[in-house]
Amino acid sequence: MGWPSSVFWAFWYILPAYFANASPVLVGGGRPIDGGRVWRDGRRLLGDGKTRRGFIGGVLIGTLVGVVQYFITPGFYGSLETAVKLAFLLSFGALVGDLVGSFIKRRANLPRGYPAVGLDQLGFLISALAFAYPVKTLSSGQIIFLLVVSPFIHWGANYFAYKMGWKSVPW
Ligand SMILES: CC(C)=CCC/C(C)=C/CC/C(C)=C/CC/C(C)=C/COC[C@@H](COP(=O)(O)O)OC/C=C(\C)CC/C=C(\C)CC/C=C(\C)CCC=C(C)C
Ligand SMILES: Nc1ccn([C@@H]2O[C@H](COP(=O)(O)OP(=O)(O)OP(=O)(O)O)[C@@H](O)[C@H]2O)c(=O)n1
Ligand SMILES: [Mg+2]
């Protein structure tokens, strides 16, 4: 594979995780996953920014993106079943990583929405890659590429969402 094609397939592979991570901003809200509960340090388990609707909506949208991707490039996935499994694991993994990130942020006494550089941009990605690994993975070069470029895309996407009035902070 030449590098333009490696780069393309790396983005194509990770797209469900990107969608899953971005969707809660638009579809989230309502009851927080932690139900308002506090940890033994007296602070919220996850906080009000992690809602059940955002989580479920993100997993559904990310998985749906995988179905669409299958019909565009069936050869990349081999079967619809593989595409759905992969997209589900990438989406679920991304959102679990997002929850772990919030758990860590609350333990560090960072309020909801406060930036944690590294964690915010890479937590969801590393978790998505790990969950999806058993079904299909990328070359190590492609993984390193995603780790390097995703923070910039994440910042760009958040800035865009802020400018659109979808988020109250540009991170
Ligand atoms: C259909 C429904 C209801 C929702 C679709 C959601 C949607 C618009 C998905 C876009 C998917 C996508 C390709 C997103 C960009 C990739 C990415 C890593 C997103 C991470 O999500 C960040 C998200 C939440 O941040 P959090 O981790 O703190 O929770 O931010 C929300 C962003 C959006 C809802 C807007 C999505 C942004 C765009 C469509 C614009 C994308 C702009 C860029 C990629 C700029 C590129 C910049 C550089 C520097 C290259
Ligand atoms: N499982 C999720 C994840 C996100 N969101 C929505 O998406 C917004 C942005 O997500 P994120 O930046 O991950 O949350 P923060 O509010 O920054 O909270 P934290 O400090 O815990 O990361 C949240 O405020 C919330 O409205 C949601 O409803 N459910
Ligand atoms: Mg945030």
Automatic annotation (TrEMBL):
Keyword presence, Manganese: no
Membrane topology term: Multi-pass membrane protein
Cofactor(s), names only, from the UniProt record: Mg(2+)
Gene Ontology molecular function terms on file: CDP-2,3-bis-(O-geranylgeranyl)-sn-glycerol synthase activity
Species: Thermococcus peptonophilus
Documented EC number(s): 2.7.7.67
Biological process terms in GO annotation: glycerophospholipid biosynthetic process
Gene Ontology cellular-component annotations: plasma membrane
Highest taxon of source: Archaea
Family: Belongs to the CDP-archaeol synthase family.
NCBIfam families, sorted: PRK04032.1
Keywords, sorted A to Z: Cell membrane, Lipid biosynthesis, Lipid metabolism, Magnesium, Membrane, Phospholipid biosynthesis, Phospholipid metabolism, Transferase, Transmembrane, Transmembrane helix
The keyword Transmembrane belongs to this UniProt entry's keyword annotation: yes
Described purpose of this protein according to its UniProt entry: Catalyzes the formation of CDP-2,3-bis-(O-geranylgeranyl)-sn-glycerol (CDP-archaeol) from 2,3-bis-(O-geranylgeranyl)-sn-glycerol 1-phosphate (DGGGP) and CTP. This reaction is the third ether-bond-formation step in the biosynthesis of archaeal membrane lipids.
Subcellular location: Cell membrane
Catalytic activities: 2,3-bis-O-(geranylgeranyl)-sn-glycerol 1-phosphate + CTP + H(+) = CDP-2,3-bis-O-(geranylgeranyl)-sn-glycerol + diphosphate
Top-level taxonomy: Archaea, Methanobacteriati, Methanobacteriota, Thermococci, Thermococcales
Name recorded for this polypeptide: CDP-archaeol synthase
Listed InterPro entries: CarS (IPR032690), CarS_archaea (IPR002726)
